[in-house]
Specification:
heterotrimer, A alpha+beta (734), B alpha/beta (359), C mainly alpha (332), A: alpha+beta, ABC transporter involved in vitamin B12 uptake, BtuC, Neuraminidase, 2 domains, 4-stranded antiparallel β-sheet, 42% helix, elongated, disordered C terminus, B: alpha/beta, 3 domains, 6-stranded parallel β-sheet, 6-stranded mixed β-sheet
Chain lengths: 734, 359, 332
């Protein structure tokens, strides 16, 4: 018993393209160049969810590395420690702004609130004679009050947040100026020696400034509140869609008010640290801070459109801006340069934030399909009277229709021992037709996805490839069981391909292993045709071993592997590649095990399923025919790219899927015969056929029926529905 | 381009500093071996070559840093210019950090300089509190701190600047002369301060109070802080002149700022009636005196202040005394500039050229 | 439908336009101040009042153009200040006055075009775009172009001095210039195609685009017009003070401008109001500022009062011309 899944032998693999007889180096290089797909890397990168927070983080690291390398003294411990105290204050304010922005608002008055709280706390500490803890508590209260002023106006009076807070900025600053005018001179000569005050200003926990330690605490609490609590969810919901939030019963006004109060409170906390650190009762404190904070928050990746963001992003943004400011200061760059840089960063960040938020999906979609060169050999003539093996005939015209109008999209058909006919439908069902003329229709199983490939295993379980879902098994009683929906991930590429996206066709080897193809890992079932326009090796061959329950990728990077069929001797696997119009043979047993070779190539149409015929030959379905124009288009990737960019999707050039045929090929790779339905009136897009009891059953992805014709030369007892080499099957089942 | 140069210069300077530090270690060892208590302990009979060597060694490769409240004004530019010239002539490195009129950034700048440990730190305090703790830290870290013109609550090794209390007294006295008892005026005076918590404002106000307390007839109708900002001074004064059309004098603590007040008074058509007093002597003062906007100003020898700082820094560096142990105050001469003498040479400075004569 | 229309018409009979309300308020304030405040109702004070608000009025006309088009130019003072300062700095060189002024105008037009581009093509909300661009403009000018914070106007540049200090038939030049600017802007907005397009743009940008108005290029033009008008205001300011202090850009002038526009009745939802609203707003703010001055308020108290009034005006504007609070976009 061969327990191991065959591995592809190194160097035994034909190129994943049609190789012309007299290929020059130039053509080889062209192919090589087209294989590299930077655009695809970008598209896949930006599809990643972690990309959004990753960019600000990368920026932060970049800023840090840049200044560490260029500015002496920047990365020194002292500098970082003293920066951390300043950073803590900025971060706290940024956090407040972040909460407001997440709730869909904006708070430009943070600078004035910061300055006013700073002044208030200093006055309370120096002049009022109150104990320091009381003064600090009062300072926080003042911050919350200021925030609630903003909040009430924005939430209950429904004023525009931007302008409202811009005006409260002026009002708060005016109050601050008045306090400064009347009282600050008196504070100038007072030295506060209260230990609590000292601790707030210069205290250190394990060498780290107390303010930074507090910040970390606030960040953790903020994270929990924002992401785990009801209030946090409400804030996010209001920011994402105010209308939906209201309809969901959230008290929008109150949530808005609370978010502004948060902002005021955090400004006050920051101001307390600032006040105790510098004791500067100046009217200038916090001037222009709103710009810094706004830039930091947007740079951190908190979207202005609201409903999106975390406290960590606010922190990352604050750290970036803080380090940038520090670095510029150390580089002896003038203060106004920093302001200018900030303004420029703000414009770019807001522009990117809005443009990106608006166009992300479109941009990914536009760059996702990335055509490459696909070459074809000379197109064979199929016209009647041409005398070629593919000459058209009318052998399918008289096909008997089964289930006409009762089935939708029977991609694959199969018959069981009792001669009942099974097929998958677009609705996600497996239908069973029974009776003399298959007039009895029943839903055998409901799977959910569109069943594509079908095969029976030794226990008469129906094994099904389901689009978008994976590999499933249906017991004879109609119970559905998942066999597998994932495989080992390829770590060499960004896209996570461990999930099965489009399992297409399967066959079961004599040892019981289920070999199945996944046509493409890049496109969903609905977009399978885009894979054809792209023409890249996105598919793979997988193997599910029922004995171990493991799934492994056997051959990756195949161009749309579609039909899979175990050869009559059970030692190799035939794989039909739709867009390359060729059949591969993969040896799964015997001396050549692990070798992959081209079995037949240059079909005049696009291949779909393959099945064994009763006479030792194979049936091959052609779901569409090549045309000179499309062959040419496939040779011109830039043309296809331009086509996709410039014209609407329904006017693109697609591979012709309007009619096809069934081909019978011998074990040696000769065409034995063809069965055509000219014009595709009854059987367009033939995707499968199955020989059973002297009849050939025909399925099609877009069809509304299953066709049946009598085969003159077939042995009436043979069936292609069964498994190859039954004699071995019994042992493999164990 | 500029940064590249700066970087190159900086790396060269660092290399030089490293070399000199090595050399300094060896000479330091020598002097200790000679039993000298620091530089000041050089014996009187020391050879002139050795004295010269000591002076050069204690300066060469050292760094002086200057943190003004903001560059871009003739005052701070002139200081920076004079210091750059003086320090670099002495073989020292000179760096300026510009907080651009932002208190927090000034504190940050000083904090980062403490980490970098220059040898001399020249600060221009925003207010009496903001740098107090940091100056203390800097001296603890072994940096000589010189304060310029606006003093902090924490007094450091040296102060260079106008005798601000005396300045307040003198201007107040002059105002009393033109607006006080016996004059045919309303005795109303407006005061335009800088930042209310600035050392300069506090001292000048203290000096003024002494004088005005003795002259109760003087009515201070408005005392507002324009935060050294010309526009604010203009706005404040435009209001005040409307509220008190019979104002006698307007006194602003800085010429750059007070120019705004003067223009506001001129706009109100009262420039002949209201005497505009101020201090400092950047070129705008001479121009304003010429244009009869200002009545008089007191210069405090700003170019000399820059040079004085260099001299005091040199002294501190050679003295061998630990930072924080000296208390030098260098008050620069006060020069009255009025409509009679503004066009004399060197009355005003513009932060760019030497020997300026405004014509 | 008919009923709704009838109701609206019936309402209209009783309802005064916002400008009219403002003018009534101005008149009553005027009367109250004249009676209560010493020195208010004197020719000197009134001329002074007018002169002191004329540059504010000019800037407000500039702002009105963009606000009518549902825009906002927070960089107005910055672009005005930078272009004026550069023009004056050039006047300190050998350059002739017209050349310097043309260069200043060119700069302000360029800045307006940049703003318009950011708003129309990059689609950044006007508030964000102009908030940041204002700081950017100022910062770049300060670091690269301007010599210092303050540029002095050389005394021999008579024309610019005249703009600020001259007298025409006994009326100070700033007032005359304000009147001319207001007239030109009024003509532009109400009598030209561009003006009608600007109203259409503000009223409903989507509909304007559908009817074939080139909304994006129009946005550029709006911000350029605003910049150019602002430049006139800047010259008046520079002329009257004999120089230009670029620190004004950091000041609260822009809020005064906003105050005039919003209080005057140019709704932030766009498409409403006109130059008359600016005049009404300027009159109200002028009288108010003057009154506050005579009431012995200092600048900070004034700032607070102005802020409160602006806040009330914003809330009121929002009540009178509500927007869809539920689907509103950030920065609207």
């Amino acid at each position: 018993m061969t327990a191991t899944v065959p591995r592809l032998r190194l160097g035994s693999r034909p190129p994943e393209r049609n190789v012309p007889a007299n290929e020059t180096l130039v053509i080889k290089l062209r192919h090589l160049r087209r294989r590299i797909a930077l655009q695809q890397v970008f598209a896949e990168l930006f599809e990643k969810r972690w990309m959004e927070p990753a960019i600000p983080l990368a920026l932060l690291i970049g800023v840090f590395v840049f200044f560490s390398a260029t500015t002496p003294g920047f990365a020194s411990q002292e500098n970082l420690l003293s920066t951390s105290a300043e950073l803590a204050e900025l971060s706290l304010v940024c956090l407040g702004m972040a909460v407001v922005v997440i709730s869909g608002g904006i708070d430009l008055s943070v600078g004035s609130m910061f300055g006013l709280c700073n002044m208030a706390v200093i006055l309370l500490v120096t002049l009022s004679g109150l104990p320091v803890p009381v003064a600090i508590a009062l300072g926080l209260l003042i911050g919350a009050l200021l925030g609630s002023v903003n909040g009430s106006i924005v939430a209950y009076l429904k004023a525009r947040p931007f302008l409202t807070t811009l005006v409260t900025l002026i009002i708060f600053r005016g109050v601050l100026n008045l306090l400064d005018l009347n009282y600050s001179a008196q504070t100038a000569t007072v030295f506060v020696t209260d230990p609590v005050w000292e601790w707030f200003g210069t205290g250190k926990v394990a060498g780290i400034p107390f303010s930074f330690v507090t910040l970390i605490g606030v960040l953790i609490v903020g994270h929990i509140v924002l992401s785990r609590s009801r209030l946090g969810w409400h804030i996010t919901a209001v920011g994402a869609s105010r209308r939906a939030a209201r309809h969901a019963g959230i008290r929008v006004e109150r949530v808005l008010l609370i978010s502004y109060v948060f902002s005021g409170l955090l400004c006050a906390l920051a101001a307390i640290f600032y006040a105790s650190r510098l004791s500067s009762a100046s009217a200038r404190v916090g001037e222009g801070m709103e710009l810094t904070v706004l830039t930091a928050v947007i740079l951190g990746g908190i979207s202005l459109s609201g409903g999106k963001g975390t406290v960590w992003r606010a922190f990352i943004g604050a750290a970036t801006i803080s380090l940038l400011g520090k670095g510029l200061l150390l580089m002896n760059v003038g203060g106004e340069v920093f302001q200018t840089v900030l303004a420029a960063v703000l414009i770019v960040a807001v522009g990117l934030d809005l443009k990106w938020g608006k166009n992300r999906g479109k941009a990914i979609q536009k760059t996702y399909v990335n055509p490459t060169i696909v070459e074809y050999g000379e197109l064979q003539d199929t016209r009647p009277g041409s005398g070629t093996p593919f000459e058209q005939n009318d052998r399918l015209v008289g096909a008997e229709a089964i289930g006409l109008g009762q089935v939708e999209g029977p991609e694959d058909v199969i018959l069981d021992k009792q001669g009942r006919l099974y097929c998958g439908t677009r609705q996600g069902w497996i239908l069973r037709f029974s009776g003399e003329n298959f007039e009895h229709r029943e839903i055998f199983a409901r799977i959910g996805g569109h069943p594509l490939g079908l095969a029976f295993d030794a226990e008469e379980n129906l094994v099904v490839c389901v689009a978008g879902m994976g590999l499933y098994a249906v017991t004879p009683q109609g119970e559905v069981r998942k066999l597998t929906d994932e495989t080992n991930r390829n770590w060499l590429q960004l896209r996570d391909d461990s999930r099965l996206r489009l399992a297409d066709d399967l066959d079961i080897a004599p040892d019981g292993k289920i070999y199945f193809s996944e046509a493409t890992t890049r496109f969903e079932m609905a977009d399978w045709i885009l894979d054809g326009i792209e023409g890249r090796p996105n598919g793979r061959l997988l193997c599910y071993d029922p004995a171990t329950g493991k799934t492994r990728t056997v051959i990756r990077n195949l161009v749309f592997p579609n039909g899979v069929c175990v050869s009559h001797d059970g030692k190799s696997l035939l794989i039909a590649q739709t867009w390359l119009c060729r059949i591969l043979r993969f040896h799964i047993d015997g001396p050549d095990k692990g070798r992959l070779e081209v079995f037949m190539e240059n079909f005049p149409g696009y291949l779909d399923n393959i099945n064994r015929a009763s006479d030792g030959a194979y049936w091959v379905a052609l779901n569409g025919m090549r045309s000179p124009a499309y062959d040419l288009a496939m040779r011109m990737p830039t043309f296809r790219r331009r086509m996709m960019k410039r014209i609407p999707r329904d006017e693109w050039l697609y591979p012709s899927m309007n009619h096809g045929c069934v081909v019978k090929v011998s074990e040696q790779g000769e065409v034995l015969g063809t069965w055509w339905d000219p014009g595709g009136t009854a059987h367009a897009t033939i995707t499968s056929m199955r020989e059973h009891g002297g009849y050939l059953y025909i399925g099609g992805l877009e069809n509304n029926r299953i066709g049946r014709i009598k085969l003159d030369e077939a042995e009436p007892t043979a069936s292609s529905s069964g498994r190859a080499v039954r004699s071995v099957a019994g042992s493999a089942a164990n | 381009m500029r940064t590249v140069h700066r970087k190159a210069r900086r790396s060269v300077a660092f290399a030089a500093a490293a070399l000199i530090a090595l050399a300094g270690c060896s000479t330091g060892g020598d002097s200790n071996a000679g039993g000298n208590d620091g530089g000041e302990g050089l014996p009187p009979d020391v050879s002139s070559a050795k004295l010269r060597q000591h002076a050069i060694d204690s300066l060469k490769g050292k760094t002086a840093a200057f943190v003004p409240v903001g560059l871009g004004t003739p005052l701070t530019e002139e200081w920076a210019r004079q210091m750059k010239r003086g320090f670099e002539a002495a073989g020292m490195k000179f760096v300026v950090r510009d907080p651009n009129w932002d208190t927090a950034r000034q504190a940050e700048a000083v904090q980062s300089l403490i980490n970098e440990k220059p040898d001399v730190l020249v600060v221009h305090n925003f207010d009496v509190q903001v740098l107090a703790k940091l100056i203390q830290q800097a001296e603890k870290a072994g940096i000589y701190v010189i304060q310029i013109n606006m003093v902090s609550n924490y007094k450091s090794d040296a102060f260079v600047g106008a005798d601000t209390i005396e300045l307040g007294r003198r201007i107040a006295t002059d105002i009393v002369k033109v607006c006080g008892k016996g004059t045919d005026t309303s005795h109303k005076v407006q005061i335009v301060q800088g930042d209310a918590t600035s050392g300069f404002t506090l001292d000048v106000m203290a000096g003024a109070k002494e004088v005005f307390d003795k002259h109760p007839e003087i009515k201070i109708v408005s005392t507002q802080a324009a935060n050294w900002d010309r526009t604010k001074a203009h706005d404040i004064t435009a209001t005040v002149i409307q509220q008190h059309p019979d104002l006698c004098a307007s006194w602003g603590f800085w010429d750059q700022m007070q120019y705004g007040a003067a223009t506001a008074i001129k706009e109100a058509g009262k420039i002949d009636q209201v005497k505009v007093f101020t201090s400092d002597h950047s070129s705008i003062t001479c121009e304003a005196l010429r244009d009869k906007l200002f009545y008089q100003s007191y210069g405090y020898s700003v170019p000399t202040q820059g040079a004085d700082i260099v001299a005091i820094a040199k002294q501190l560096l050679q003295s061998g005394r630990p930072p924080g142990s000296s208390r030098i105050a260098d008050y620069t001469p006060l020069v009255k500039i009025d409509r009679t003498n503004w066009d004399e040479p060197n009355m005003c400075y513009d932060g760019k050229t030497d020997g300026l004569t405004v014509s | 439908m008919g009923a709704v229309l009838a109701k609206a018409r019936a309402d209209g009979r009783f309802r005064l336009s916002q400008e009219q309300i403002i003018l009534i308020v101005v008149a009553s304030l005027f009367v109250v101040f004249s009676v209560l405040l010493d020195g208010f109702f004197t020719a000197d004070n009134l001329l002074n009042l007018l002169r002191s608000v004329s540059s504010l009025g000019i800037l407000s006309v500039a702002m009105a153009v963009v606000v009518i088009a549902r825009g906002m130019d927070l960089s107005l003072v910055a672009s005005m200040g930078v272009s004026t300062a550069i023009a004056i700095q050039l006047m300190r060189s050998e350059l002739s006055t017209p050349e310097a002024l043309l260069i200043g105008l060119g700069i302000v037009l360029l800045l307006g075009a940049i703003n318009g581009f950011l708003i129309a093509f990059v689609e950044i909300p006007a508030l964000f775009a102009t908030l940041a661009s204002g700081l950017l403009i100022y910062g770049v000018a300060r670091t690269l172009v301007l010599d210092g914070l303050i540029v002095e106007l050389p005394p021999d540049r008579e024309f610019v001095r005249w703009l600020g200090q001259g007298v025409v038939f006994g009326i100070p030049a700033p007032i005359v210039i304000f009147a001319v600017v207001a007239l030109v802007a009024h003509f532009l907005l109400s009598r030209t195609r561009t003006g009608r397009f600007i109203y259409a743009h503000g009223d409903n940008a989507g509909a304007a685009a559908l009817t074939g108005i080139p909304v994006r290029p129009l946005t550029l033009i709006e911000y350029m017009i605003a910049g150019a008008i602002g430049f006139c205001g800047g010259l008046v300011m520079a002329g009257s003070v004999g120089g230009f202090n670029t620190q004004i850009i950091d000041g609260s002038l822009i809020y005064d401008v906003l105050l005039v526009v919003v209080v005057g009745g140019i709704s932030l939802v766009g498409g409403r109001g006109g130059v008359l609203s600016v005049l009404a707003g300027t009159a109200l703010i002028g009288v108010m500022l003057n009154g506050m001055t005579i009431l012995n308020m200092n600048t900070h108290e004034k700032d607070i009062v102005k802020g409160l009034i602006l806040l009330a005006a914003l809330v009121l504007d929002n009540r009178l011309h509500p927007r869809d609070e539920e689907t509103v976009r950030q920065g609207d």
